[in-house]
Amino acid sequence: MIADALLGEGVYRSHLGGLDVWAVPRPGSRQKAAVLYIDYGSVDLHLRARDSRQVQTTPAGTAHFLEHRLFAKPYGDITEQISRLGGDVNASTSFTSTIFSLTCIEHFADHLALLFELALDLHVLPDGVAQEREIIDHELQISCDDPEWIGFLHGLEGLYQNSPLAWDMAGTRESIGQIDEDMLTRCHEVFYRPEYMGLYLCGDFDVEATYAAVESALLKYSRPRSAWDRVERPVVLPTPQPLGALALPVSRPYTLLFFGDDKAGQSGRDLLLRELALELALDIALGPASDFFAAHYEDGLIDGDAFGAEVYAEQTFCFCTVGGYTQQSDRLCEKINAALASLDERAVAADLGRAKRKAYGLLLRAWEQAEEVVDMLCSAAVSGAAPSVYFDVHEQIAVGDILDVLESCLSPTHLSAMQCSPASVLRPLVPTGRAE
Amino acid sequence: MHAAGEFTRVQFADGVYLHLHSIGLYKTIRVDVCLSTPLCAPRHSLVALSSRLLARGTHKLPNVQSLNRFIDDLYGAHYSVQVDRLGEYQVIHLCLEVIDENFLGEKGILARGLTFLRDVLRDGNGFQPDCLEREKQRLARQIADGFNDKLGYAQRRCSEEMCRGEPTGLSPLGNPADFAAVQADELWAFHRERTAADRLDIFVSGDVRLEQIHPLMESLFTWKRAANQPQPPPQRPRRAELRREVFECQAVREAKVVLGYRTQVAYGADGTDDYPALALLNLMLGGDGPSRLFKHLREEEGLCYYISSHIEALSGLLFVAAGIEATAYPKVRDKVEQELQTLRAGAFDCREIEAARYLVRARLLGLAEDREGFFRYQLREGLIGGNQSPETLWQRIEQVGVEDLTRMAGGIVADTAFLLHGT
Fold first, then answer.
1. How would you class B90 by CB atoms within 10 Å of its CB: exposed for 0-12, middle for 13-18, buried for 19 or more?
2. In this predicted model, what pLDDT tens digit does every residue of B178-188 receive, in sequence order?
3. Are B124 and B53 in contact (CB under 8 A)?
4. Could you give the percent of chain B with pLDDT greater than 90?
5. Which residue in A3, A31, B35, B376 has its CB near the most CB atoms, within 10 A?
6. Is the pLDDT of residue A424 over 80?
7. What is the separation, in whole angstroms, between the first and last Cα of chain B?
């Protein structure tokens, strides 16, 4: 049934065998997209035995390992089956989710059947696990060549210290060494259950027929409950260390400021409002139209394309990053703090209209292509809200909401800064060409 | 309106084209303005610098802040200025995406946006000595930052080494060594001349009709134009001469290898070229999904972490790129050559051809709803003077047989290999 309407389109919602399904049918459009979401990410390290209540800790990187391993089926990689139908499939593991996303043009029902097979039909064999371990170990090695990512993780360590929020989603060489077939099978049984999953669909399809296909796929892979349960995710509040420094293979210094939100732990409308308030506050203080940006673009402290802010707001944690490449790390930190501190009620009120117009455009654009629509359905559902709530909070947000986040998140006491400077030899060397 | 929309191309001045994709699917209208000029040194540095100054403001919006405020005021339009290479052309690309007025309680958004783009091209305020000096530094830094993306860096270095002396070997971002000599007034004169002489393509996509947009275009984008547009020198696919290997040592953990090949195939305007066969062959070799390189080198031999191939259609080049252990380099190089050898011998599996066809089909038929992809496709067609729809190209790919693929593989010759490795 229609649960919501957005920009002239119906949003359907249903619960199929415990699975939360949101769908936006688009007659006449060719592109179809689906996201299968599993409420299981890199921070979910604990399992509890249902009988003894005993808690077991799983190795860091298990969720990511499992996501990788699910592609291996007895007949080979399932990607091959999907490309034969003309579709594309991708997977990713974040702190709190595992996401399988699909796009295709034809044979939607067949694609969906493969999507469920991908996520729900696990085949683990010892040599497959050993092989995967090597692949992931290598993946971890490569990520050391990505200075922005390493800087990001170290910054989170400054903000959250020993929380798994500061760890690489893929784990470490040591932790993945402890992942075995039993562990993967157990975690799959515990987390990959319809009640912990969501399905988001957009494109030209018949809603009822699609629901029927989903139900039969779920039935095919239904299993008894595991003897283990997941453990609820705690809300993580920041404990910022003011400054960290790193030497990395970068071309020039890279500085990122992390602001942790003291009021993390909200959901639904409150969470979306908070996310938007943070985005608007950052835009007013530091965005391309701000005095900060104008002054420091001109004096060379920041680069237009290499400077930006990002908000990460979820039910159990909330933080923002601000920064980019700069020649003067200390001065950048100082100026960002000054710009945030200068925002008072008058300054916010004077610029909120512009910032809201801009935010409205961004919101509309997130509802454009099928792929974007399913992402937005998924983010809304994961936050615990209907997609139209994004528009409601946009309409209702006021100066007070902005001042609130400036105080409880975007102020120096919530800040942890990470300064990455270039490591030793980085100038391109003279090529040593030779002819064969 | 048909679901895939309707595509129309109209010339409305010498070398000025409107490409309209009327499609009701979107909530925004996207406009891409491309000024294309043959790529050559040291002129490419002037083009790159002028593209940076275009982003600095117009006489009506004289500084970065007023310009950014204007963009935000258009409901957070997306706006960018880039300089790119497409085949032998260097392209200044302005992109603006505004909300369709049907979703707003306000009219005139598109007209304001188009006027702004015209002003950016013709009424720039940024060509002043102090702005120029800052943009020289910024651009030089942007070029240096390219090193942070190690695979992208290896790819550029391979093209540069392989195509020395050819336009394809030049970076569209220019060469920082040329920047010092550039003067603001000369650059402005140069840019004005380019806007009068170079080919100008304007792409509009969204719920817009020709009769609605054509008058607006004619009033905004017509100024005194040169009668003929400069063309890149006619290009014959160059044969690989000497196989070269170039090694570079940097602080990286994972080595990146890029192998460059010449294919002898030029993307043609008349529909008789071999591009369809090459496109299919590339997908089987190392395109997305389960390709031969991925299966054999990655899955079976574990020689690399990832491996893929891609073609540069307008230059007739094929590249294989992989992340590897440096010590595996000779083996990877030889295995890739061995794969090509199998293809040259005509050892194709029908199922593999079928799978590649499906992938191409999905991609080409999906282009109508992939704005960026559709724009790039049509710009390429425009630049070579072709008029082939994605559907027509698909029909040609459907006709490709084993003998075409074998012939294509036979024409692929190894040229330059580039290895970026750690200490």
1. buried
2. 999 999 999 99
3. yes
4. 69
5. B35
6. no
7. 60
